[in-house]
Amino acid sequence: MSILIKNATTVLTMDDTLSEITNIDIRIADGVITEIDYGLTGTEDTIDATGCVVTPGLVNTHHHLYQTLTRAVPGGQDALLFGWLQTLYPIWARFGPDEMFTSAQIGLAELALSGCTLTSDHLYLYPNGARLDDTIAAAHDIGMRFHPTRGAMSIGVSDGGLPPDALVENERAILEDCIRVIDAHHDARDGAMVRVGVAPCSPFSVSRDLMRDAALLARDKRVMLHTHLAENDEDIAYSLEKFGCRPGQYAEDLGWTGPDVWHAHCVKLDTQEIDLFAKSRTGVAHCPCSNCRLGSGIAPVRALRDAGVPVGLGVDGSASNDAGNLVAEARQAMLLQRVARGADAMSAREALFIATRGGAEVLGRPDCGQITLGKRADIAIWDVTGVESAGSWDPAALLLAGPTRVKHLLVEGRQIVRDGHVTTLDLPRVIERQNRLAQALMG
Ligand SMILES: [Zn+2]
């Protein structure tokens, strides 16, 4: 199957020289970008990109899709991280496979409409028969490139942990299920639509042994590792008190550094930890809206990038954002660095780089995240003829003045958003179903 994108006003390639090309055509065949040139012709399906900025599809490196069913829960609206979790745990304990599937459909559709073509997900609770497979089915249906991670919690309240005992699992069962989902779904090949990762929820919800065993298992299976780290001051205090060290040290001691590891948040990393991450090429998923929403602080993204740490963006779960709009998240990342470091701390183009190629690097996907020959055809097409861009002197500075909803979106060369609508789902029906499930949880 091939597609021709015609007359792109500007293409932000995110290639090695960050080249920007104007009035150009792009040919796609079998999921790959095969030609970028002027005046291409052919008989294939054509997308008219006149008046559009074309970028690589955005990459989301941290999410909890299931949380789209618990947005704006009153008891958690104004709480800090630990109090927020304690409000939501009992609600999540009532989820099952249907809630996981439908909430993932909603979260993925919302991401797609905001230009995202590749997302990871961190699912760390499995009540009432829910499985990672429920979310993989949702991603398959919508046609999104998907890196689900098999999360876990094993230290419940009765053992001094944060989550209720009903939401924690036996550690042996966790590792066995990690092996099951990797064997069933993980695809290591170029162009893979599904890659599975191993992801104990956080140092405060699993044991030291599980952290270490998870790292050994992931290396044995050649899959990636993911968790939450150094999210806020409470998180650092917990680490110092329980483990006698800072989170960076804890991660290093247990095998949780390296190019096959990425950590969410890292708001509170100190200089030494930033050096450790840079030397080991450990990735960071920066989640600015969630950090603002929970009052966690401003992650040192400028310092991380300057040190050479791979940084991607994450919308984080929709219970702590509460939106899942990735292009809006990129704008927030740009603004937040400016709050901390001044107006020249991060440009619109750099924030967009983090949101595209940066994320692809964090997720170990050199085959994605740029518009160059031979890369996967994951492409976002933004209409800059609308009211948001009117009067812009530089429409390619999308994050300063541009749309927050994509016009067209291609994943692996397949158009999953056309004229602002998801083509692969009956979205109004899914929204209706999601709202019915939310009502039932409230009751
Ligand atoms: Zn998270």
What do you see in this structure?
The chain has helices at 81-92, 97-113, 132-142, 171-185, 208-221, 233-243, 247-253, 271-280, 288-293, 301-307, 326-341, 348-362, 427-442; strands at 2-12, 20-29, 32-37, 45-48, 52-56, 58-60, 116-123, 145-152, 197-200, 224-229, 261-265, 283-286, 311-313, 379-383, 408-411, 414-418, 421-422. The longest helix has 17 residues, at 97-113. Strand 15 and strand 16 (414-418) form a beta hairpin. It is 35% helix and 21% strand. It is built from 13 helices and 17 strands. It is of the alpha/beta class and 443 residues long. The chain binds zinc ion.
The percent range for helix content is: 25-40%
Number of E-state strands: 17
Small molecules held by this entry: zinc ion
- Give the mean pLDDT: 96
Note the total helix count. Answer: 13
Secondary-structure content class: alpha/beta
Low-confidence stretches: none
Characterize the main sheet: 9 strands, mixed
Q: Distance between the terminal alpha carbons, to the nearest Å?
A: 48 Å
Which of globular, elongated, flat, extended, rod-shaped describes the shape? Answer: globular
Round the Cα radius of gyration to an integer and report it: 21 Å
Order of helices and strands: EEEEEEHHEHEHEHEHHEHEHHEHHEEEEH
Strand content: 15-25%
